[in-house]
Amino acid sequence: MNTHEIDFKIIGEEMQCVEIELDPRETVIAEAGSLMMMSDEIQMQTVLGDGSEATQSFMGKIFSAGKRVLTGESLFMTAYTNHGSRKHQVTFASPYPGKVLAMDLSELGERVICQKDAFLCAAQGTSIGIEFQKRIGAGLFGGEGFIMQKLEGDGMAFVHAGGTILERKLEAGELLKVDTGCIVAFTKDIDYDIQFVGGIRNTIFGGEGLFFGALRGPGTVWIQSLPFSRLADRIISSAPKMGGKRKGEGSILGGIGGLMDGDNF
Predict the structure, then answer these.
(1) pTM of the model
(2) May I ask the CATH architecture of the domain 7-233?
(3) Which residue of 22, 61, 86, 125 has the fewest C-beta atoms within 10 A of its own C-beta?
(4) Which spans in 111-189 are helix H?
(5) 242 three-state secondary structure
(6) For residue range 120-179, what is the model confidence (pLDDT) as tens digits?
(7) Between β-strands 7-11 and 76-82, what pairing exists: parallel, antiparallel or unpaired?
């Protein structure tokens, strides 16, 4: 096994976090800004690239960091190492309401493709790279663009997604149509493409966009019930408009209700 063997515990329901238990000299890597708390014996170090290879050359680290930038992440990652003489814990939190998904890459063909901002943390030795969509249609209309994240290794990796995460195992040739924004991750043998919704009324009034994501087995796919883009749209639509006035939030009185509760004074 090339990656560190780590123990973990996922805590919470709607805003989950993952507690990683490290043996002495074990290391976990994580996205910058994901730390929630850590024991005093845990030491953090900012590394260039994904930190998967401690002996990697400087140019190799630059190339690795550049690939991460293409997926919308920062040039750097943070490595957390237990420098104590016994087990210690470090905890990471998801950035928005949803679930944390634990993936044992050794049981998933040692490679998983996921949406660009899904990665949270992983055992050291895991490579976080990029996966280019070879089909033009999937790249242009697939919701994730031409570039997705690729997690490679034989240890534990953790991703986060919005709402509830559903896992579906697809048989060879089995097709699953998914809203493009709801795709969290899939194993390397899944064939990913897009499919036109079809029908004028469906296209214009269906509210689901022009295309579905088409995932064909064999393999495993993970689907989220609340994409962050959908959550952000709802927040923006409910935010105060010009002049600081909020929406009526479903009240029959609307703005008059705001006068009654003093919000408009």
Answers:
(1) 0.77
(2) 4-Layer Sandwich (3.60)
(3) 86
(4) 136-141
(5) coil
(6) 999 998 988 888 765 555 445 444 545 788 999 999 999 999 989 999 999 999 999 998
(7) unpaired
